[in-house]
Design goal:
This protein is of the alpha+beta class. The protein has helices spanning about 60-80, 145-150, 155-160; strands spanning about 10, 35-40, 40-45, 85-95, 105-115, 115-125, 130-140. Strand 5 (about 105-115) and strand 6 (about 115-125) form a beta hairpin.
């Protein structure tokens, strides 16, 4: 059975040393290379978007904000429940523009769990103000179902996250 990590940094290699996730892959040169930590009942990351990630001039692109929200929520599953899931829905509310070149703190906490579905609340904060908030729901499949979704066997490092 999966174990829930204690407070502090989460292992960036929990999915294996070779994983190339766009959001968290430590060796994905075109990805965000996010790092996560557990703080009580939340998982947290920080990210400073570069100029190339803007929508309107100087404003962090809304779709990339949603990517950041999905990523911190996904790691919320890992850090708070010791599980991995597949996103089934993502709802975002953009409160105020968030600027490129300035650090954003992303926080996720578990809102509810019903059967094999877990919903997490997410907040994206810049300069102490909420810029966006969302709710992300995941389905937590067992190992056999996850193998079907992935189209074949999964990496060995992933198997414990589907128990």
């Amino acid at each position: 059975m999966s174990t829930v990590p204690s407070d502090g940094p989460l292992d960036p290699y929990v999915f294996g040393k070779e994983q190339r996730c766009f959001g968290c892959g430590p060796h994905n040169p075109t990805g965000l290379q996010l790092k996560f930590r557990k703080e009580g009942d939340e998982v947290v990351t920080t990210y400073t978007p570069a100029q190339g990630y803007q929508g309107p001039p100087n404003v962090f692109h809304g779709g990339l904000q949603a990517t950041l929200a999905d990523e911190v929520a996904g790691w919320g599953l890992v850090g708070l429940l010791g599980r991995m899931g597949f996103t089934t829905s993502l709802q975002m509310r953009y409160v105020r523009p968030m600027l490129v070149g300035q650090e954003i703190e992303a926080r996720a906490s578990v809102a509810s769990q019903t059967g094999s579905f877990v919903t997490l609340n997410v907040r994206l904060i810049q300069q102490g103000k909420t810029g966006a908030m969302g709710r992300v729901t995941y389905m937590l499949p067992d190992r056999d179902k996850a193998k079907d979704y992935l189209g074949g066997d999964m990496p060995e490092d992933w198997k414990r996250l589907f128990e």
